[in-house]
Design a protein that fits this description.
The structure is a single chain. The chain is an all-alpha fold. It contains two helices and no strands. The chain starts with a helix and ends in a 7-residue tail after the last helix.
Length: 80
């Protein structure tokens, strides 16, 4: 069970990285260039998309941490 928890932790942290790099960073880069005169009409939709993916990233990070913690705490003790 512990091995699969560690493996799931790895997969989840890769998902976090992908969400960050493929969704959130491009939106952040787009927002950085906005001014009051260049604000797009759908800025609220863009903001809501960012908020949804940020929440996904946050909960995925927490799940990854929980799985990794379980992996560490249930590991087999080393024998000498």
């Amino acid at each position: 069970m512990g091995f699969y928890s560690g493996l799931l932790s790895l997969v989840l942290i890769i998902v976090v990285l992908l969400v960050t790099l493929l969704v959130l960073v491009p939106i952040d880069n787009e927002i950085k260039e906005w001014t009051t005169s260049t604000l797009p009409d759908d800025w609220e939709d863009i903001r809501n998309k960012w908020k949804i993916f940020h929440a996904i990233r946050t909960f995925t990070s927490l799940a990854s941490f929980a799985c990794f913690s379980f992996f560490i705490l249930t590991g087999s003790p080393k024998t000498k």
